[in-house]
Design a protein that fits this description.
Blueprint: H1 6-18, H2 23-31, H3 35-46, H4 61-70, E1 74-79, E2 98-106, E3 109-116, E4 123-126, H5 129-139, H6 143-154, H7 167-172, H8 176-182
Antiparallel strand pairs: 1-2, 2-3, 3-4
C-alpha cells in the first residue's frame, strides 16, 4: 500500500478551492489514504464545475474597461494643449504639439496605447489605467475629429493607417471602409 504523495495532496487542496465539489467529495478528501484513492478522488473533483472568480470591481479596472469597450478602434492625434494641466502624470508625453494614441484589437484583446515613430513601424506604450480612463472619456464623441488629425499629420487613413489612394479618401482622411465604419 502506497501512501498519498505530497503532490497529490497539494492538487486535492487546490481543487477544493477551485471546484464546486459537494460535501461527499470534501469528506472523501479528508479520508484519502492511498495513491489509488487520491487518483480516483482527483478524477472526480476535476469533473466538478469551477467556482466562479469573484468580481474584480476594485480600483480603476472596471471604469477603464468600460470606457475602452465603448471606444472606437482607431488612431488618434490629440492636441496636447487640451491635455496639459489635466494629466500631470502624462507630462513627459505632452512635450510635443500632438499626442498620438491608438485603440486596437490584437490577439482577441483590446489595447489602448501611445504611438511613437512612423506609420508601419509604430512603437506602442501602454497608457496607464487611471489616465487612460480619462483620455478615453475625453476622446468619446470627438473620435472622428482626432482620427482626422492623425490622418492629416501622417498622410494615412486616420482609422487604420492604410495609404489613402483616391482623392475622396485624401480629402476626408479615411479610406472607403473606414468612412463607412465611422458613418461618413
Amino acid at each position: 500500500m502506497t501512501i498519498v504523495t505530497p503532490k497529490q495532496t497539494d492538487y486535492i487542496n487546490l481543487l477544493l478551492k477551485q471546484r464546486a465539489v459537494g460535501d461527499s467529495l470534501r469528506k472523501a478528501a479528508v479520508l484519502v489514504k492511498t495513491k489509488a484513492e487520491a487518483s480516483l478522488l482527483i478524477d472526480a473533483m476535476v469533473k466538478a464545475p469551477r467556482v466562479p472568480a469573484p468580481a474584480a470591481n476594485v480600483g480603476p479596472r472596471p471604469a477603464y474597461f468600460a470606457a475602452l469597450a465603448d471606444a472606437e478602434n482607431s488612431k488618434y492625434a490629440i492636441p496636447t494643449r487640451y491635455l496639459r494641466g489635466a494629466f500631470p502624470t502624462l507630462a513627459p508625453w505632452l512635450k510635443n504639439d500632438l499626442l498620438f494614441l491608438e485603440i486596437r484589437n490584437y490577439g482577441g484583446r483590446q489595447y489602448f496605447s501611445r504611438l511613437t515613430g512612423a506609420p508601419g513601424a509604430f512603437n506602442r506604450t501602454r497608457v496607464p489605467m487611471v489616465e487612460g480612463t480619462q483620455l478615453l472619456k475625453f476622446i468619446a464623441g470627438r473620435h472622428v475629429e482626432f482620427a482626422k488629425l492623425f490622418a492629416d499629420e501622417h498622410g494615412v487613413c486616420g482609422r487604420c493607417a492604410a495609404d489613402l489612394t483616391d482623392e475622396v479618401s485624401r480629402a476626408t482622411g479615411f479610406g472607403p471602409t473606414c468612412r463607412a465604419i465611422f458613418g461618413l
